[in-house]
Structures are given as structure tokens and as C-alpha cells.
Amino acid sequence: MRRYNLTHPMSKRSGARIANAPELCRFLQATGLTHKTIRQIERAKHALVLLQQGVPILDVVYQAGYFDQPHLTRSLKHLLGQTPAQIIRMVRPA
């Protein structure tokens, strides 16, 4: 089973709300996922919808908040099992 460091403080520069350790533990136990993982899944789902709508890959990178195209490709391959090009080919067969 994967272990998560739930006590590591987030960067103070991020401005994000820092949850206490018991709250994070309850969330992890209830869902089996961390907040970060859920955010990554939601972002990948958003990118998938954009690609299915015919939005160009570089625009998807920007609109979904990825750093660059390789970042998008790695994320979609990891979470969805397909690259952006494979998703586009499924939507628009040759």
C-alpha cells in the first residue's frame, strides 16, 4: 500500500488552506485518495473533454493548467491510459 506523508506542511507561498493531519487522514481513509490525486484526476477529465471537443493539444495544455505538452501527455497516459494523440484519433477516426 502506498504511504503518504500527511504531516509535511505545504508551502506558505501557495496560499492554500492547510488541513490538519486528522482531517487529511479521514479523507484518505474515506476515499483511498489524497486531495492532490483527486485534483489531478479532475484536471485530466477536463483535458479529456477539451480534446474530445476538438480543442488543439497546446490549447488544452493551457486551459487545463498543465506546464507543457509532455506534462499533459504523461498525466493522461498515467491516469487514462492514453496519450492526447490517441484520444484525438478515437474521436476523429482517419
**What proportion of the residues is helical, as a percent range?**
55-70%
Number of helices: 5
Number of domains: 1
Q: pLDDT below 50 for ≥5 consecutive residues: which ranges?
A: 1-15
Level-2 CATH architecture:
Orthogonal Bundle
Distance N to C terminus: 42 Å
CATH topology: Arc Repressor Mutant, subunit A
- Structural class call reads mainly alpha
The biggest sheet amounts to:
none
| Integer-rounded radius of gyration | 16 Å
Written description of the protein model:
- This protein is mostly helical.
- The chain contains five helices and no strands.
- The longest helix is centred in the middle third of the chain and has 18 residues, at about 35-50.
- It has one domain: Arc Repressor Mutant, subunit A (Orthogonal Bundle).
- About 60% of the residues lie in helices and about 0% in strands.
Q: SSE layout and pairings?
A:
Blueprint: H1 21-31, H2 35-52, H3 57-64, H4 69-80, H5 84-91
Keywords:
94 residues; mainly alpha; Arc Repressor Mutant, subunit A
Question: Could you give a short description of this structure?
Answer:
With 94 residues, this protein is mostly helical.
